[in-house]
From TrEMBL:
<feature type="region of interest" description="Disordered">
    <location>
        <begin position="412"/>
        <end position="445"/>
    </location>
</feature>
<dbReference type="InterPro" id="IPR005399">
    <property type="entry name" value="K_chnl_volt-dep_bsu_KCNAB-rel"/>
</dbReference>
<dbReference type="GO" id="GO:0008076">
    <property type="term" value="C:voltage-gated potassium channel complex"/>
</dbReference>
<dbReference type="Pfam" id="PF00248">
    <property type="entry name" value="Aldo_ket_red"/>
</dbReference>
<comment type="similarity">
    <text>Belongs to the shaker potassium channel beta subunit family.</text>
</comment>
<dbReference type="InterPro" id="IPR005983">
    <property type="entry name" value="K_chnl_volt-dep_bsu_KCNAB"/>
</dbReference>
<keyword id="KW-0813">Transport</keyword>
<dbReference type="GO" id="GO:0005737">
    <property type="term" value="C:cytoplasm"/>
</dbReference>
<keyword id="KW-0633">Potassium transport</keyword>
<dbReference type="InterPro" id="IPR023210">
    <property type="entry name" value="NADP_OxRdtase_dom"/>
</dbReference>
<feature type="domain" description="NADP-dependent oxidoreductase">
    <location>
        <begin position="52"/>
        <end position="395"/>
    </location>
</feature>
<keyword id="KW-0630">Potassium</keyword>
<dbReference type="GO" id="GO:1901379">
    <property type="term" value="P:regulation of potassium ion transmembrane transport"/>
</dbReference>
<feature type="compositionally biased region" description="Basic and acidic residues">
    <location>
        <begin position="421"/>
        <end position="437"/>
    </location>
</feature>
<protein>
    <recommendedName>
        <fullName>NADP-dependent oxidoreductase domain-containing protein</fullName>
    </recommendedName>
</protein>
<dbReference type="GO" id="GO:0015459">
    <property type="term" value="F:potassium channel regulator activity"/>
</dbReference>
<keyword id="KW-0963">Cytoplasm</keyword>
Length: 445
């Protein structure tokens, strides 16, 4: 369920868009509510949030002053954004403290905005995990820093393999029953972990999670497009996305564009991800042999894609992979120019175009940066079927489920359950070889 924040008369795009046209998107700085902003139910709950939320870790980063952070938040509220996402792992405790001060100063009604904050990580290594003790203490500390009577949605940031799922869901149910939070959800959980939590909630009569927060952009699609819609249809878990600004290009001295990994830029606080740590090691190892580059960064909120990080972690050829990803990013930039926008706006609009995304988190370090990102909402009517097909042709990474293989087929091919699926040449082997494999397989059993 969703609703428009304004009327369609506000959206004036002129002629229809084709890949060959270059109409410019008009900036409407005098609009009180951003054209194209919608409000959707988060999961299958009754909580309605704007389809664009504000991620606060770049807003409260060390390089942003308190006055500038307040200006960004006021612009977000004036634009119709009603969701603010916090995380101690990204910006420490400063974000909650500063946001609480700004809310008190502005005098916003508590019913007019939605606060989501995360638990699990902590700036102190001994204070992390999902024990009942840590969950309750973390929630109480967040309430004190925010100076609020309750938090709308508490997100469990990563599952804890050392803590029983029953303890986690019972603790979250207790937090909600005490009135400290209205809902709870997950962040960076696998579909199996989400289903396990849901099953435990049903078994012990606890409140179920309503949302999963996960990465989603042009180079990270499998979980969001294949599995989270299934979670929504089966158990009502919605999808809050982050990371739409996945492309970061720089200029070398010879004029050639470079693809810069996420780990090579230190605009984010200390990493809590093993993937990012691996990327940092790979980049530092190669930095001594790479020529000096003078880099001009055009976008600095959510940088690059975990896709390249995974390739580096798996020790595939990083140069070829980086070149291939750069070629795709260049083609996306060229397409954005034809559409009369920039690659950042096209990336945001592309993420919002997918129906499973109920809320897309954006970050900014200045009001101008947030204003430019919000203009991507006006691009949504231009993303016709032809444009989306052109983007798919450029990316060539649409996730597809592997074809199911029945247990009977595995037995006939002589492959035990849980082993690798039979290869094509194995399936086409002669009947005598198949019969011999059957006999050997029976002997093993």
């Amino acid at each position: 369920m969703e609703e428009f924040s304004g009327t369609t008369a506000q959206l004036d795009f002129g002629r229809s868009t084709s890949l060959g046209s270059n109409p410019a998107i008009q900036i409407r700085s005098n609009a009180t509510t951003t054209p194209g902003l919608r409000y959707k139910n988060l999961g299958k709950s009754g909580l309605r949030v704007s389809n664009v939320g504000l991620g606060t870790w770049p807003i409260f980063s060390p390089g942003v002053s308190e006055e500038q952070a307040e200006a960004i938040l006021r612009l977000a509220v004036d634009s119709g954004i009603n969701l603010f996402d916090l995380s101690e792992a990204h910006s420490g405790t400063r974000a909650e403290i500063e946001l609480g001060k700004i809310i008190q100063k502005a005098g916003w009604k508590r019913t007019s905005f939605v606060i989501t904050t995360k638990i699990y990580w902590s700036t102190k290594s001994e204070e992390r995990g999902l024990s009942r003790k840590h969950i309750i203490e973390s929630v109480q500390a967040s309430l004190q820093r925010l100076q609020l009577p309750y938090i709308d949605v508490i997100l469990v940031h990563k599952a804890d393999s050392m803590c029983p799922m029953e303890e986690i869901v019972r603790a979250m149910n207790y937090v909600i029953s005490q009135g400290w939070s209205m809902y709870w959800g997950t962040a960076r959980w696998s579909p199996v972990e989400i289903m396990e939590a849901y099953t435990n909630c049903r078994q012990f009569n606890c409140v179920t999670p309503i949302v999963e927060q996960s990465e989603y952009h042009m180079f990270c699609r499998e979980k969001a497009e294949l599995y989270l819609p299934e979670m929504y249809n089966k158990i009502g878990v919605g999808f809050m996305a982050w990371g739409p600004l996945s492309m970061c290009l720089g200029d070398a001295q010879n004029g050639e564009k470079l693809w810069i990994p996420k780990g090579s830029l230190k605009s984010k606080s200390q990493s809590y991800s093993w993937i990012e740590d691996e990327v940092n090691k790979e980049v530092s190892a190669r930095s001594s042999t790479r020529p000096h580059c003078s880099v001009h960064i055009s976008v600095l909120f959510f940088l690059f894609s975990v896709h390249l990080a995974v390739m580096l972690h798996l020790r595939k050829d990083p140069q070829d992979e980086a070149r291939r990803l750069y070629d795709k990013a260049r083609d996306i930039s060229n397409l954005a120019e034809k559409l009369g926008c920039n690659a950042v706006q096209l990336s945001i609009a592309w993420s919002l175009k997918h129906e499973p995304v109920q809320c897309l988190l954006l970050g900014a370090t200045s009001p101008e940066q947030l204003h430019q990102s919000l203009q991507a909402l006006q691009l949504l009517p231009r993303l016709s079927t032809g444009v989306m097909l052109e983007i798919e042709r450029i990316l060539e990474n649409k996730p597809v489920r592997p074809p199911p293989i029945s247990t009977l087929a595995l037995r006939e091919s002589g492959v035990p359950c849980g082993a690798e699926s039979p290869k094509e040449e194995d399936i086409s082997m002669g009947e005598e070889q198949k019969e011999s494999q059957k006999i050997s397989f029976c002997e093993i059993q």
